[in-house]
């Protein structure tokens, strides 16, 4: 019986189901034929987006225009910035990003900084433009950031809270300030005095220089921390940083930042950007001094006598060094005067090293110093306390302890470098005997960029190792304590 009814049921299903499907389609077509109009209601998204390295918020696509009667701008937009006009903003609870925009020209120097009554809060600033340039995390609350713009473009400053929205934070108010720095000319031998403040925490100075000029710039700041950068014209136009300042000394209630002595690479315009490190200080004075100096010549084996008069900044000397030279430089001052010794040179030009009182009493010295580049080296002798006077003797010599060509050398192995002249293809046996102590040093033997031998520190009385010299030239043997107790060792080389 069921077998006879099955064909009838199949035919009924084929007739009924298409009819039902057609009826449903007709109902659907009738429902969409006259859509209900929707009025756009742009709002912030109620739920922040999922985590990402730099999370963003969804801003309303058509921000309402700001009128003079409107409330102070907050973080609800990209907000325009104008030089010298602080903008107040607010990161709502859980909000992690606010954007501010301005237009800039290539080579223009801008300063910007952010303050907050909710400090301490971990807000950071980043800078980007619409042609792909970006620097992130350049400054925090209360810090001054100064930057040379690379392009003529539209720029954005991002105010970022690093906390992920899921972790939450309360409402954070802030004030962001942008300033374009106007250049002020300065000449060799000139001293410019002025004032920095939370409203003007940076200055821009320009000067004309010639290739080969040896220059020095000093920034003395009272009652605030400071920093300087020297820029020159880049290979493809624009400006590039040549050197940053180092803390050189102290004055009453302040400090001295110094750039150089530095050899200028080209003829043309140079720029010095001076700034405070923070903006949470009362208005305070500063003084910038720019000098072209003429270092006196100094030769190996020579001792010169000189004097720092009261108020003198420093005395300068120069010598030509060869790659692999190991030198001893010593200052002996009269009447226990306190002096500092510094070396400058290399490519790129930089501070090579300083010493304050490693010699007798308060005298500085740099013994066994390795020159790893050939060229001019400038020696600076300065009073440790600015303005002090001192009569002194300065001596320069090749380190007798460093020349293994002249025989075995007995040294204290804490961070010392020895050298000898190698010949291509010869085999050298390096021998180290421990005279005092229990450990041999860590040893690295190099020639140019090639590492010829490495030996770890060990508790033996004697070790030896062989290596081959690839080319003619200076071979360097670097000794290091590696954190172990220092020993006195005798180092020698045997040609096999």
List keywords for this structure.
single chain; 496 residues; mainly beta; Jelly Rolls; 4 domains; 5-stranded mixed β-sheet; 1 helix; 36 strands; 50% strand; disordered N terminus
Outline the secondary-structure elements.
Elements lengths: L1 H31 L45 E3 L6 E5 L5 E8 L4 E7 L8 E6 L4 E7 L3 E5 L4 E8 L11 E9 L2 E3 L5 E6 L5 E8 L4 E9 L3 E8 L5 E6 L1 E6 L2 E10 L4 E9 L7 E9 L3 E2 L4 E7 L6 E7 L4 E8 L5 E7 L4 E6 L9 E6 L4 E9 L6 E9 L10 E4 L3 E7 L4 E10 L5 E6 L2 E6 L6 E7 L4 E8 L7 E8 L1
Parallel strand pairs: 1-3, 10-12, 20-22
Antiparallel strand pairs: 2-9, 3-8, 4-7, 4-9, 5-6, 5-8, 11-19, 12-18, 13-17, 13-19, 14-15, 14-18, 16-17, 21-28, 22-27, 23-26, 23-28, 24-25, 24-27, 29-36, 30-35, 31-34, 31-36, 32-33, 32-35
CATH architecture of the largest domain: Sandwich
State the major sheet: 5 strands, mixed
Beta-strand content estimate: over 45%
Q: Averaging pLDDT over every residue, what do you get?
A: 80
Number of domains: 4
If you consult CATH, what is the topology of the largest domain? Jelly Rolls
Number of helices: 1
Give a brief description.
With 496 residues, this protein is mainly β. It has one helix spanning 2-32, and strands spanning 78-80, 87-91, 97-104, 109-115, 124-129, 134-140, 144-148, 153-160, 172-180, 183-185, 191-196, 202-209, 214-222, 226-233, 239-244, 246-251, 254-263, 268-276, 284-292, 296-297, 302-308, 315-321, 326-333, 339-345, 350-355, 365-370, 375-383, 390-398, 409-412, 416-422, 427-436, 442-447, 450-455, 462-468, 473-480, 488-495.
